[in-house]
Amino acid sequence: MKLGIVGLPNVGKSTMFNSITKAGAECANYPFCTIEPNVGVVPVPDERLEELAKMYNPQKTTHAVVEFVDIAGLVKGASKGEGLGNKFLSHIRETDAIVEVVRCFEDPNVVHVDGSVDPIRDIETINLELIFADIETVNKRLDKARKNLKADKKYQVEIDLLEKIKENLENGISARAIDYNEEEKELVKEMFLLTTKPILYIANVNENQIENMENEPLVLKVKEYASKEKAEVIPLCVKIEEELSGLGDDDKKEMLEALGLDESGLDKVIRRSYDLLGLMSFLTAGEPEVRAWTIKKGTKAPEAAGKIHSDIERGFIKAEVVSFNDLMDAGSMVQAREKGLVRSEGKDYIMQDGDIVLFKFNV
Q1: Within 13 Å, how many C-alpha atoms sit on residue 111's CB side?
Q2: Which of 9, 53, 73, 99 lies at a C-alpha separation of 20 to 30 Å from 293?
Q3: Residue 308 in 3-state DSSP?
């Protein structure tokens, strides 16, 4: 699962990408890797793993991971192939969600590509290019559906949906902001429109704005815009995050306390990005390894078992499950069993975030 980091020039996009990947390399045992110069795989911060590691003292602790891509810059006209437009759009198509960095600070020493700071204009510059590309996709599908309608009346449902989407797109409304019924939701998934991809806005502020960054006027403007798009906004100072990413754990903690922050903004971005992709973690724990395994929300137990090994899914018998909180309250797995907190679940069990699981199987 892959997230694309986008933004106009000089908004802090590449600095944030570099900070995320650097922080990820240093804060976990997962072997950091750069697949290409602009792709990084980073661990998802998860305090539950640290608590389990204290309990089991494992040889290895493995976090879930998420993949970020620093996507080439965008200019107006990208949908028509201007600048690196075609490359930009093809990279966006390959991602599962979008993280858009927008500038919410004034600084005469940092030139803005459009001459002034206006985060809503910046957002619309990028979103309009994605909308233009989607209009082209919708028009092609409409032509095809209308031709097929002559042979099969079922295409009328698709035509009605495409016309609804087209009308909204032409009014500057992203496809993700449209309300759909259940049948339409399934059809929209098959269209692979760029503006249906989940999006997270990063409001980049400067050091002087940190204390009140949630209520900064430009940040509030971004939040208002995002609410219409069913999107979330995380304000942070990319410059500070870059400094934090280069520190060891103790120095990082000290700096966060001095800034009055509970955690780094990047940790929040990584966790929220994981959630944005519709992902969650179940956990396995023992002396060899404490590990978080990535699954889609709504995954049933046998499919989750298959993440560990296909044989476990094929020979699935049952899953012994205890929630993380119940295990912590009990103090050990033995005590959790004695208190009846360990459940035996079958093939229809839908996994919950933070489930600690032992799969029973026979092949």
Answers
A1: 2
A2: 99
A3: helix
Q: DSSP secondary-structure letter at 146?
A: H
Alpha-carbon dihedral of residues 137, 142, 144, 145, nearest 10 degrees? 130
Give the tens place of pLDDT for each residue, 210-257. Answer: 888 999 999 999 999 999 888 999 999 988 988 888 888 889 889 998
Sheet of strand 65-70: strand arrangement? 33-34, 39-43, 65-70, 2-6, 97-103, 199-204, 232-236
DSSP alpha helices (H): ranges in 63-105?
A: 85-93
Those residues with Cβ within 8 angstroms of residue 153's Cβ, 6 or more apart along the chain or in another chain: none
Strand order across the 279-285 sheet:
60-62, 289-296, 279-285, 355-361, 316-323, 343-345
- Type of residue found at 10: N
Task: Work out the burial of residue 344: count CB atoms within 10 Å of its CB; fewer than 13 is exposed, 13-18 middle, 19 or more buried.
Answer: exposed
The amino acid at 319: A
What does the alpha-carbon distance between residue 182 and residue 61 come to, in Å, rounded to a whole number?
Answer: 40
Cβ–Cβ < 8 Å for 299, 62: no
Residues 6+ apart with CB under 8 A from 39: 67, 68, 69, 70
